[in-house]
Amino acid sequence: MEELATRLEIEDLQENLEAVQGLLARHKQVEGLVARQESPRRELMEQLVQKLHLVELRTRLDKLHSADIAYVLEALPLNERLLVWHLVKAERDGEILLEVSDAVRETLIASMDSDELVAIAETLETDELADLAPDLPKEVLADVVQSLTAEERAQLRAALSFEEGSVGALMDFDMVTVRDDVTLEAVTRYLRRMEELPDHTDQLFVIDRARKLLGTLPLARLIVSDLELDVSRVMVPEAVKLHPDDSAQDAASAFERYDLVSAPVVDAFGALVGRLTVNSVVDHIQESSSETRLAEAGLREEEDIFAPVWNSFKNRWAWLAINLVTAFIASRVIGAFEGSIEKLVALAALMPIVAGIGGNSGNQTITMIVRAIALGQIQGPYWRKLLSKEIGVALLNGLVWGGLLGVIAFVLYSNVALGAVMTLAMTLNLVLAALMGVAVPYMQARFGKDPAVGSSVIITAFTDSGGFFIFLGLATLFLV
Predict the structure, then answer these.
(1) What is the C-alpha end-to-end distance of the chain, expressed in Å?
(2) What is the pLDDT of residues 235-252, one digit of tens each?
(3) Claim to verify: residue 265 and residue 313 sit in the same structural domain
(4) Are 273 and 347 within one domain?
(5) What is the number of domains present in the chain?
(6) Alpha-carbon distance 416 to 414, whole Å?
(7) Distance CA 279, CA 339 (A)
(8) Which candidate, 383, 166, 187, places its Cα nearest to that of 265?
(9) 264, 385: one domain
(10) What is the structure's pLDDT at 148?
(11) Residue 83 to residues 115, 117, 179, 288, 377: CA-CA distances in angstroms?
């Protein structure tokens, strides 16, 4: 059922995107036809054409969720993106800016003047404003801060003070608190006076006069309990508590382990300072996953697919330069065995197989290791056991698949020695891939670097050069 729901959601997104693209295409086509007319009423015709399609487009956009509009904006070239952006109702701009990627957000903010940005920022909650603040011009942020209350300013300063990737950077200040010495009936009356509960409210937080967290009151308990009872009789005293400095990844693990919808965030003295909700956790997981995939490929940041050429170049050039150096080294390794290749042409046909399989195996290993590091599953004493296990897997794969390739090489070239060299080279290169697959993330993590950054580029460099050297070296020793 979950897979079906996901598929239907994707189909709806595609349908909305195609509808918007279709309206934009028709608008552009008719606009071009009108522009070629020499009629004295040309200006009036242009206005009518714009209203015809743009009103229909605005009507469709008004029906879409902010996240769906963000999806549409990210899939449009810059000129069409800005046209759609200016058709969106102003009161939704803040929500949409929070949903789009950082790269696309920059293009949207750049198209707006200071007054528009101030108006948008003033519609956001404090925690939302903290997410948007790094992308706002300084003068805009200063104007917005002046419009905040003293409490909101303190909350904003607190949110901006926490490091990215911490619970404090993700926590929400909008929550419902109650005292432990009041009755459930009083709590119910209090809730009924509110226009609506904060999003993802599954529990109320029980505090004392000093705001120290005493426990939580799940709404499920509140509904079924006798209203004459005090909160202290019904609350859950042992709640899962988080601290602002905790890792967001650790918090995500806690949400997954305990099936949480929300969790309180307390300071060093146990005072309630905020809450973390499942939507923030999911957003963090998706963002971290995206950053990891980009880092593995050597990309510095998420990129707008319609970004200017120069911006994309700056994002990609560094690791491409490194890759160029490693490719040159691999070519020099091959060049060192030109004589062997000339004597046995079959080597040229077989050596890419050894390097390619080694690269794939290394990427498998490094992906598993990076994931385990992110989940905190690998501690210092276990790195050796992990290395031994990966070498064992490499040896088994080498014997199985290297042996198969050795048989294929024998069948193709009727050379038993070549088949044996192929098997041995494959096994040794897979062992090398396992060693590097463990060593690369280990060294990066040990020196405080993100173990995912450029990992696929590094492992491919070693398995290519190493694979060529091992295979051609063995061939030179035993075949030539």
Answers:
(1) 60
(2) 999 878 999 999 998 899
(3) no
(4) no
(5) 3
(6) 7
(7) 62
(8) 166
(9) no
(10) 85
(11) 19, 17, 50, 31, 48
Region 410-421 average pLDDT: 90
How many residues are listed for the chain in this entry?
480
Phi, psi dihedrals of residue 217, rounded to the nearest 5°: -120, 95
Does residue 1 lie within any of the structural domains?
no
Instruction: Give pLDDT tens digits for 311-364.
Output: 777 777 776 787 788 888 888 888 888 888 888 888 888 888 888 888 888 888
In a domain, 22, yes or no: yes
* Distance from C-alpha of 211 to C-alpha of 480, rounded to nearest angstrom: 81
Q: pLDDT tens digits for 15-26? A: 888 888 887 777
Angle, helices 416-446 vs 403-413, to 10°: value is 140
Domain that holds residue 259: 177-296
Q: Are 429 and 355 in contact (CB under 8 A)?
A: yes
- Contact, 74 vs 66, CB < 8 A? no
